Amino acid sequence: MWPFIASFILRQRIAILLFLAAITAFMGYQSQFVRMSYRFGGLLPKNDSTQLAYTRFTEQFSEDGNVIVIGVDDPRLYEHAVFSSWHKLGNDIRRVSVPKDTLIDGENSRIQKSAVDSIFSVASCYNIVKDTSEHKFTFKKVLSGAPRNQEQTDSVKQIIRNLPFYRGLLYDEDSDASLMMVFVNSPLFNSEDRGKSVEQIVALVNRFSQESGVRTYISGLPFIRTEMMNKVKAELNLFILLAAGVTALLLFLFFRNVSVVVVSLLVVGIGVVISMGTISLLDYPISMLMGLIPPLIIVIGVPNCVYLINKYHGEYKKHGNKFRALARVILKVGNATFMTNATTAVGFATFIFTDSDLLIHFGVVASLNVMGVFIISLIVVPTIYSFLPAPRSGHTKHLDRKWVFYTVNKLVYVLTHHRRTIYILTASIVVFGILGILRIKTTGNIVDDLPKEDRVISDLKFFESRFKGVMPFEILIDSGKKGNATKPAMLEKVNEFQILLEGYPEISRSLSVVDASKFAKQAFYNGSPDRYDLIKRNEQTFIGPYLQGDYETHGIETMFMDTSKSITRVSAQIADIGTLQMQSLLQDLRQKTDSIFDPKKFEVTYTGTSVVFLEGTNYLVNNLLVSLVIAIVVIAFLMAILFRSARMVFISLLPNMIPLIFTAGIMGYLGIPIKPSTLLVFSVALGISVDDTIHFLAKYRQELKLLQWNIRDSVLLAVRETGISMMYTSIILFFGFGIFSLSQFDGTQALGILISMTLLVAMITNLLLLPSLLLSFNQWLTTKAFSEPLLEIIDEEDELDLEELQIRPGLYNRENE
């Protein structure tokens, strides 16, 4: 097959390049339609019980997490000038809108779509007033219009402080902290139509802060999501440039040849364009994880070019025939490079088995484009070099560099005289790793990947210290009977449950229909704060009629109960406490809840973004461990196809498992937790590190044939032949993944550092441990089956007939003379 492929590529090189250019142009056009992901979630499968509960909640009560909170902690807030500015800020934010394409009378038009549904603050809140003539409650704004003077401002403050409903909700009674809730248009904010609405709100808040001299704080899921995605956008472009720059520099240092750099960058540049086009065609959104794919394609694609160009220079140096050298590059390196890319793709493809949309999308795009960049490199490198002049003597000097020979000779010396030391060091690394693994913890926070000094983190800490948190935490209580949710006995249980929640320092002031009922009772007694309490049974007859009027029409009941009034909702916020602490809190809360709501009569469901994130993190960790096992099994299967020897499969996996154990140990010692971003390290690194093993064993088997089964010389020659390329590619991968350490996200930093570390250790184990095992257990390992594989990787006997390639006369006269 490979002789045919080599012949086809070199004969049809112009047509193939034109076809590739057309595909690249099409994918480049498609890439402009890539959309960003502004939603949290996607971690759980759609049929997961936690996800189903959250979906039912949003269908019944609308989506949670649609509030941007703006906080201040300054006694000057109630100074007339500052309070007027605070009131104006709310009005300005309410007018924030984005243009939206709409079809009107058959013509496209741009209309303004409101980005903000409502504003809720001490300058724009309501009081409930009793209307004795109509026997109903009405809602009345505490402040109508801007405050006229300091006296009116003081009056507003006094009214609000006498309304316990707002205590812990709009203000903190133990400090001067107050907040403004901005309820955003959820469908708009979860789409690309959001425009720059969050940025407009932030700009208005910053202007208020500058004009008033009062420091402001911003948080809430819409703000956090936007800030994170803006950083992802910025890093996407930054990492593409960094990856291209770092690999270009390393290629030039290794080869001292501009054409090598240009051709390699052309290969990965096409790969990046096609990867972005793939994301667009599949209609996958750009998430923090998906944003890593373009720089990954650069880092993974360059080693393909290194192997191909290294082989080209080596072949040309042997016989001086450029065309023959290019043909043999495809013939001799093509299959091996295909298998190495296949194992890398397998490492990514295992994420498809997680049932998580986020990881499935990443696995599909990454695995497809890893194989895509292999095809691109196999086409572009030989065809472009077929049009370039033959390598000069200076271009192949990298094959004869003294430091390379010195390093390789040192490796051979160590393998020959110090194998025992290698085994002792290997055993020490394994013990070190296992002890570190025992220290690893599994955890994760919604914002823990952001740097600690980031405004998102610092402002979130403010709200957690004053209002206990902003992450949505919802509890649904199903009484099982229609109308039960409004009965006094049920309200008393809900009240007891809310008192229970107050005992948790991580949970904010909760709201339910009970609070609305207390607010109504206070209004009935002409606003007396002492009357903010549950309506007693003997008060039902004279307060009840007031509850049937506008009080219901303002949506109080629909906010906290379903239409059948069998399910009631308790809404709160929680601090971003991490999955370990969150899991412990939920277990404790469930046990105490059972004493209030008998599990035989009531069904209590904990949901909200915070709970979904907790379960999603746990789900991912468990399933990524499964995907790692799948990756090991699939790679072992590929090795079995290649070498037809169970013993060789074991030996080939061993040098690649030890780096994973070492990295896991480092995570334990440094306190790096297992979470989705760090757990990706193992599957990705395994798929890449196995590449060196395949190249080495393929060369080893080839030398066995040529040296008539001289195992020792075959191993040492394989080290000399493949050692250079293995070192080059490993160094490129090390620094390529190392660029992710410059990320603003802690998880991405850890991912880059850990993968770089794993691949560096893998290079050492493949250059030292693997040859040592072959030398020490030569007769036991190297069976006849190993020398007769099902799939041939490198066959030194295969040659192409140059006449069959039908190259036009005159193109290669200089080489063929």
Brief description of this entry?
It contains 29 helices and eleven strands. With 817 residues, it is an alpha+beta fold. It folds into four domains: 1-33 and 236-400, Multidrug efflux transporter AcrB transmembrane fold, CATH 1.20.1640.10; 64-225, no CATH class; 401-462 and 617-795, Multidrug efflux transporter AcrB transmembrane domain (Multidrug efflux transporter AcrB transmembrane fold), CATH 1.20.1640.10; 463-613, no CATH class.
Task: Provide an overview of this structure.
- The protein is α+β, with helices and mostly antiparallel strands.
- The protein is built from 29 helices and eleven strands.
- The longest helix is centred in the first third of the chain and has 35 residues, at 221-255.
- The two termini are 29 Å apart.
- The model is unreliable at 102-110, 550-554 and 793-817 (pLDDT under 50).
How is the secondary structure organized here?
Elements: H1 2-11, H2 13-31, H3 49-61, E1 67-73, H4 80-94, E2 97-104, E3 107-114, E4 116-120, E5 126-131, E6 136-141, H5 150-161, E7 177-184, H6 186-189, H7 197-212, E8 216-219, H8 221-255, H9 258-281, H10 293-319, H11 322-349, H12 357-387, H13 402-417, H14 419-437, H15 455-467, E9 471-478, H16 488-502, H17 513-524, H18 540-543, H19 550-553, H20 556-560, E10 567-574, H21 579-594, E11 603-607, H22 609-643, H23 646-670, H24 676-706, H25 711-738, H26 746-776, H27 778-781, H28 784-787, H29 813-816
Antiparallel strand pairs: 1-7, 1-8, 2-3, 4-7, 5-6, 9-10, 9-11
